[in-house]
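Researcher: Here's a chain I'd like modeled. Treat it as a single chain, no partners, no ligands.
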Amino acid sequence: MKSKPNYYIVALIMLTFFVISFLTNVIGPLSPEFIKDFKLSDLLAGVLPFAFFIAYGVMSIPTSMLVQKYNEKKIMVAAFVVAFLGSLLLAAEPNYLTAILSLFLIGCGMAMLQVVINPLLRTAGGAENYAFTSVLAQLIFGGASFLSPLVYSYMVVNLNKGNHAGVFSLLQPLVPQNLTWISLYWLFTVMALLMFVIILVSKFPKVELANDEKAGPWKTHVDLFKKPVVVLYFIALFCYVGTEQGVSYWMSQFLFEYHHFDPQTTGADAVAYFWGLMLIGGLIGLVLLKLMDSRKLLISFTIPAMICLTLGLFGSAQVSLYAFSITGFFMSVMYPIIFSLALSSVEEDHGSFAGILVTGIFGGAVVQVLIGGLGNLIGLRYGMTFLYLTFGYMLSIGFWAKPLITNETIFNKKDKAS
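Model: Modeled as a single isolated chain. Structure tokens:
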């Protein structure tokens, strides 16, 4: 018997996806501001996204086990309390050390939410609708990633002009005149507080996980890590997030450093278009997955992504500006394909395996520090060439992946029918 969808909770989860993306993917456009205002080297700048994404490595597996002891509502409330404290810390006391602690706390909150909301979405929206609602969630996630750099640009431009209308009249006394980008963290503080209140007054359904979906004890995770295929896909998720953040975090600083584009306007717009084109690419990818094997699609999108990275790093100013953004289009299919290939490559313990894969998100931490360190030694342009290694690993997946179940296309569906 099909359960009736809880549309209120589905809408709440969609709003949560929006907030997660909005808070996460604005770090890239802020990179030049961190570097300039806190007087950072590339290596020290790389520590900031490291602090954010290492939280996924710390929190993902423990949260997947805690959520079975406590309910989803308590975990989500706790997540937004942590994100509120992190946002308020940097907004009230902006300096490099508080930025590191703030980003770590916000990252912890976002990691906790990521673990909870996917199984909750399946229950609230109905298992039979999960494919549709999960795609819708990814589209909303992409839309928020597109909007957040534009909101950042809008806020700093108006504060720099001395606009005292509406919300800016409240922000002017709170925001240092030479740190107008801090206004964004006051916005995050309000968003986290509102989400805390909304979730606190919401009634949640009971989430029933199948045995295969539940996160097992530490022993299960350790046993999984002994399987080569699990290690290979853990590295794959590590490489994907490292690459995604490696492009989106450093591109604004690169465009400023090598081509003198204003990071508060042109640089922020370029990052917004990176996420916007990723959203469009995801829609096209959904259609293409019905026409071709996911491994072939991964190969056919990864090669153009590497070409765009090359044009971004070594092209002229205008070519570089557009090429970095277009890279987002070709990266759009990588995460869902890698994740689905991974889960389709093991027969059991999918809940624990998913927790391991989400932990791989801390690749967004490590790769940024490596790029920053290399940037100090050989310059940011050549530091970013490290991304050829991570792209190369993802390209290789299309050749060695052997899933137990391949994605259904209109062609192999006909073959099965005949």
